[in-house]
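Render this sequence as a predicted structure.
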Amino acid sequence: MPAFDAMNAFSILPWHDSVLMEVRIGYSESQRPMVTLAVSFCNSGDIGGRREVQFNDVRGVYTALDLLAKELCGNQIASGHCEKADETAETFVQRLLRQFDLHRGETMEGLFLFTIELIHPGGTIQIVSPSFSITTEPVLVDSGQSVPIVT
């Protein structure tokens, strides 16, 4: 997926007033790092109801969630946006590059910074990954592929 398409596809999802139900961090069947967000999207066009937004080959994930505030604000999302990871000044991405010294010359080229902001003061989730996918049908049952860290 070309960069503009990935950024646009993520940013146009109906994030505002949708509900973050669950965050899972784990590994895919091929043992690649993966983050899955269970989101109950507001009805908008083809997207609506509970869906899973999945990030594969994740380079890093940063969560700053106030779980009490998240609950008191109805678990609602304020916004979701995406940018090229190699063009961002976000502290989280810069820290990933500074701290990683196992492979000289490692860059963020080809990766995106996906950001989900909850209604204030709920917090933020940032994911660095080359792409994302979303289930095409509403999810009815948890697949149990990874361990829930936020419910």
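Summary. The chain has one domain: 3-150. Residues 3-11 form the longest helix (9 residues).
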